[in-house]
Amino acid sequence: IFRFMRGWNANLTNWNVSFCKSWVVDINGGQRGTVVADVSFRTGIHYWEVLVADFRTICLGVCEMPKNPRVLNDKWLGEIGYAVSASACSGGTAFLYSKEQLSTFTVKAFLPGQRVGLLLDMEERTLEYYLDGERMHRISPDQKATDTKDPAFTKLPPGPLFPACSNGFDKAFCRGVELTLELPLPAGYMVVREQRRAEQAKQDAAAPARPAGPTPTATAPTPAAAGGAAATGTAPSSAASSASLASAADVMKAPAPAPTAAASILGQPPQKK
Questions:
Q1: Would you say the pTM of this structure is higher than 0.85?
Q2: pLDDT 10s digits, 18-50
Q3: Cβ(43)–Cβ(191) under 8 Å?
């Protein structure tokens, strides 16, 4: 019953947005616009589906409520949230856009009449993308599939997050966007999540531990160090001062060196010729 009572929020829309029913919206061309649901999520795991009757460009995903809700009337979802964006001329490819993550990954695009599923896991802060009940994986720029356990979006904000839709940056149209909230979770999702957690735990355990640095020990400076400290204007320690005074005393007590040959010659009186 809950999913039939909830739908799109008709109080935060612009002139180019119209509603057939509370859960079916049309976004006409000519201006960008984002429509959010009348429910948001901060905790738990939630799954909903969207059916689109017709579109030139459409974005489906989640977003936070802007500080100024009027921003929704002139922004597409990729600017303010996290969106899977499909276009009628994209050749079967949908793009992943977000306000924070510059992603070069793509996913398989959806067509009018297909069931587009979005699974928001606020415990993992991830958003999953489903097409006709099948979980879709990301595709790298070289057209190779990535790990099938990777979600479409990660590191989502803590929320609250609203299910949302919009037309694209090209200000095109999307019509008959029907929202069905709070559906049962797709089969197999919890298994994928546990596998993802186990792999992350293995990576954390295999990561090399950072070596602890040596514990610094206090050592008494040598006489040379004490002399250097005096030259630089720093006060030597008491041990260094005592060592320096002892060395000076030893020098004073030492016997005078024997005169050299030159000194002996110079000290003799001149000889008479």
A1: no
A2: 998 889 999 998 899 999 999 999 999 999 999
A3: no
Only one residue has tokens 């160090």, namely: 225
The Cα–Cα gap between 121 and 185 comes to 11
Token pair in block for residue 90:
């994209």
Q: Read off the tokens for 219.
A: 């050592």
- CA angle in degrees (0–180, nearest 5) for 66-117-92: 100
Checking 186-194 for CB contacts under 8 A at 24+ apart, the result is: 186/47, 186/117, 186/119, 186/130, 186/133, 186/135, 188/135, 189/45, 189/119, 189/128, 189/135, 192/135, 192/149, 193/121, 193/124
How far is it, in rounded angstroms, from Cα 176 to Cα 52? 5
Strand partners, 35: 165
85 within 8 A of 97, measured Cβ to Cβ? yes
Distance separating alpha carbons of residues 49 and 54, to the nearest angstrom? 16
User: Which tokens in the block code for residue 84?
Assistant: 């899977």
- Tokens linked to 190: 């919890």
